[in-house]
Design a protein that fits this description.
Bound molecules: flavin-adenine dinucleotide
Largest sheet: 9 strands, mixed
GO cellular component, one term: ubiquinone biosynthesis complex
Keywords: FAD, Flavoprotein, Monooxygenase, Oxidoreductase
CATH superfamily of the largest domain: FAD/NAD(P)-binding domain
Pfam family, one: FAD_binding_3
CATH architecture of the largest domain: 3-Layer(bba) Sandwich
Radius of gyration: 22 Å
Helix content: 25-40%
Domain FAD-binding: 5-336
Cofactor: FAD
Structural class: alpha+beta
Strand content: 25-35%
Order of helices and strands: EHEEHEEEEHEEEEHEEEEHHEEEEEHHHH
Length: 384
């Protein structure tokens, strides 16, 4: 006998788990299918994967009852520069009357909190979808192990490599940045004082994010061969190279955790919805990590989908029908395209070989720092 539910969510990362929790709290009968194991308890001492969480994402998670998570580090300042720290653009939360610009949170803490809050019947771990059929009455998912699940709507939250997106034949626009991000946590002689540092280098941006235990998390985007060489360096040489690349704004670097590598691509699905299928999170869009916005965009999708589906249901309309799903698509495409365009333009601009352009951008950052209204506007857009 087939199991039946209102909504099947495929993929239990941060975005999938958040939408599963929100929809079950709104009264939908939900199943969450995750191909991997349930998230492990948070590794000690600190998960190497951390995210800059924007205030809008924090407020969604607060409404879901999972915020704050342990070991958050609030950051209230940002320093962004290209040639020299004296010419940096400096943001502060106080510039826009806030206490903080955002928080650095560990992936495992976020996942752990979301999964722990799910009602017992919702998660189906280690459930892989073998085939999907979208009929006029329901979607039918064929699961590993011979089980069948019927749902009025399927939400793909499978991350960048989304089999449901591919099987549905949705066109994906994709470009390889030719870069990889080196990710590690480091100990620095200068305290971070809650300030995130970002320097635009010709090979790609380098960010040092503050952590709750006083260390900093590094995300260093480099051409793929240089990133691999950086990972192979002995610790002392890597610490020297990093301290010098960030122009000693973090002081000397004395220790680091094992370096991880992440290939960087830009991806955008041409459609977010099909009959009985919705894409959210990285299944719909993958952006450069330079603005720290991937999870935040995914949680923006979650917020919009929760609103669209509950509103339609409360107004007794066909909440799983294409007309309603297209409302979600229109709203999120506009917001996501804006961020895709911004991150892509920033990456291209600072890496362009045109001799004069970096100087113009460098002057631009220094100038922006001195024009209070423009700076305020920029911060407000970043926090939206
Ligand atoms: C170096 C780096 C730094 C970043 N920093 C930031 C940052 O500071 N802030 C920020 O907001 N974003 C950041 N991002 C982006 C962020 O990592 C992603 O946007 C985010 O992880 C996407 O979440 P997701 O839930 O959509 O997908 P994923 O995290 O990829 O989760 C997908 C889940 O689906 C499961 N799955 C996949 N296929 C199937 C299937 N067929 N059946 C069942 N389950 C399946 C997987 O096991 C996984 O659990 C960064 C990215 C990188 C590479």
């Amino acid at each position: 006998m087939a199991d039946r539910c209102d909504i099947a969510i495929v993929g239990g990362g941060i975005v999938g788990a958040a939408v599963a929790l929100g929809l079950s709290q709104a009264g939908f009968d939900v199943r969450l299918l995750e191909a991997g194991a349930a998230p492990p308890p948070a590794p000690e001492p600190v998960d190497p994967r951390v995210y800059a969480i924007a205030p809008s994402s924090a407020s969604l998670m607060q409404r879901l009852g999972v915020w704050p998570v342990p070991r958050l580090c609030a950051y209230d300042g940002m320093q962004v520069w290209e040639s020299a720290p004296e010419r940096a653009l400096r943001f502060s939360a106080a510039d826009v009357g806030r206490v903080q610009l955002g928080w650095i949170a560990e992936q495992s803490q976020l996942l752990g909190a979301l999964w722990a809050a799910l009602p017992a019947r919702v998660p189906m771990t280690q459930a892989r979808v073998l085939a999907a059929e979208y009929g006029s009455d329901a979607a039918r998912l064929q699961l590993e192990g011979g089980q069948t699940l019927h749902a009025s709507l399927v939400i793909a939250a499978e991350g960048a490599q989304s089999p449901l997106r591919e099987r549905a034949g949705i066109v994906l626009h994709s470009r390889d940045y030719g870069q990889q991000a080196v990710v590690t946590h480091v100990e620095c002689s200068e305290p971070h004082r809650g300030v995130a540092l970002q320097r635009f280098l010709p090979g790609g941006p380098l960010a040092l994010l503050p952590l709750a235990d006083g260390r900093r998390s590094v995300v260093w985007s480099l051409p793929a061969d240089e990133a691999q060489a950086m990972c192979a360096l002995p610790d002392d040489d890597f610490h020297q190279a990093l301290a010098s690349a960030i122009q000693f704004e973090a002081g000397a670097i004395s220790a680091s955790t094992p370096r991880l590598l992440f290939p960087l691509r830009l991806m955008h699905a041409e459609q977010y919805v099909r009959e009985r299928l919705v894409l959210i999170g990285d299944s719909a869009h993958v952006i450069h990590p330079l603005a720290g916005q991937g999870v935040n965009l995914g949680l923006g999708d979650v917020e919009q989908l929760l609103t669209t589906l509950t509103q339609a249901r409360d107004e007794r309309r066909d909440w799983s029908g294409l007309r309603v799903l297209r409302r979600y698509e229109r709203a999120r495409k506009a917001a996501n395209i804006e961020m895709i365009a911004l991150t892509d333009a920033l990456d291209r601009a600072f890496r362009t070989p045109v001799a004069l352009l970096p100087r113009v951008l460098d002057n631009g950052l220094a100038l922006l720092d001195r024009v209070a209204p423009a700076k305020r506007l920029l911060i407000q857009r970043a926090l939206a």
